Amino acid sequence: MLDASGNVITADTGKIAAVDTAAALEYAQSVLKSSRQKGFVGDYRYHKQTTSMGIRVIFLDCGRSLSTLRSFLLTSCGISLLGLLAVLCLILLLSRRIIKPVSESYEKQRRFITDAGHEIKTPLAIIDADVDVLEMDLGTNEWLQDIQKQTSRLTELTDSLICLSRMDEDQNQFQMIDFPVSDVVGETAQSFQTLAKTQNKTFTTRIQPMLSLHGDERAIRQLLSILLDNALKYCGAEGTVSLSLERQARTIRLCVFNSADSISQENLEHMFDRFYRADPSRNSNTGGYGIGLSIAEAIVTAHKGKIAASSQDGRSLLITVTLPC
Predict the structure, then answer these.
(1) Confidence at 313, pLDDT banded by 50, 70, 90
(2) 3-class secondary structure, 69
(3) Terminal Cα distance for the chain, rounded
(4) How far apart are CA 208 and CA 109, in angstroms?
(5) Phi, psi (rounded to 5 degrees) for 239
(6) Closest of 244, 270, 264 to residue 256, by C-alpha
């Protein structure tokens, strides 16, 4: 019992041996400072009452119950942990057997693409040479020109498939060195200026000078060519294409923007899928095969970067590449 000022009137510890009067008074003073009516002090649950005689604080020893609860929680956590470890081991053992056939099939598929691509290139080269001979004998005509055009497209597709397959097999094929990325981007963009003018399209660049990047220069040139070719190819008539390169903190940010007739959210989600084309009719007038952006993504991934496609208004496309310096 305590009075309104907090002075102890009386203390009864006769029914407990673990706490003496001094300890009980300390517990009571700590409870008095708290605004709570109920709670715990150590292993003792308390209840505070205000009576006509003063403030009464009753303590109940819950040590045994709390000890049992703690033991139960520790035991439950231990058993749960052992169960999770057992399930994890079981998953690891079974997943190897389940994934192994899929992995082997995927590896065979990649090897087949590479081997078949090399085999196809030989007859394509022979066909192209035979067409040149026929052209010398018969002169130029639409049939020979069509054969040359289709042979060239098939050769380009084969080279792209082989390139993508090699990237999947070994990303260590890149020769990582420090090179002036600003100069590389400027040179590559310059080669597309003439193409943009012939198509009556506006092509602007904004390149921060003196930027350096640790990566494969040839692969970065290929990445730029793919992105710019894609931007010009799918840009609408008299549309706009822009290229920007800048440093942000510890990364190099490359952005390629182009206007378009329409870009849906579904197109953006599948933009980097292999053989995916936004045109459902797969019209060959654009000359695309749906694997250019897949190669671009593989190049960015090999450089430990990120690539993303976005559209703010549904009538433009922005591809953003972030590469670590």
Answers:
(1) confident
(2) helix
(3) 71
(4) 42
(5) -85, -170
(6) 244
d(CA 194, CA 258): 17
Q: What's the DSSP call for residue 2? A: B
Window from 71-75, 166-170, 231-235, 259-263 with minimum mean pLDDT = 166-170
Q: Which phi and psi (to 5°) does residue 186 adopt? A: -65, -45
Q: How do residues 98-131 score in pLDDT, each as one tens digit?
A: 887 877 777 777 777 777 777 887 888 888 888 8
Q: What is the pTM of this model?
A: 0.60
Residue in 272, 203, 266, 264 with CA at minimum distance from that of residue 238: 203
What one-character-per-residue DSSP string does 180-222 give? EHHHHHHHHHHHHHHHHHHTT-EEEEEE-SS-EEEE-HHHHHH
Half-sphere exposure of residue 276, counting CA atoms within 13 Å on the CB side?
13
Rounded to an integer, what distance in angstroms lies between the CA atom of residue 101 and that of residue 142? 49
| Structure tokens, 133 | 């001979």
CA distance 218 to 125: 25
Q: Do the Cβ atoms of 29 and 3 come closer than 8 Å?
A: no
CA neighbor of 113 nearest in space, from 162, 146, 175 = 162
Separation in Å, CA 281 to CA 252, 261, 278, 285, 287: 37, 16, 9, 11, 13
d(CA 51, CA 12): 17
Contact 163, 295 (CB under 8 A): yes
Amino acid at residue number 235: C
The alpha-carbon radius of gyration of the chain (Å, integer) is 37
> 295 and 226 in contact (C-beta within 8 Å)?
yes
* Rounded CA separation 268/266 (Å): 5
Taking each helix axis as running N to C, give the angle between helix 217-234 and helix 181-198, from 0 to 180 degrees, rounded to the nearest 10: 30
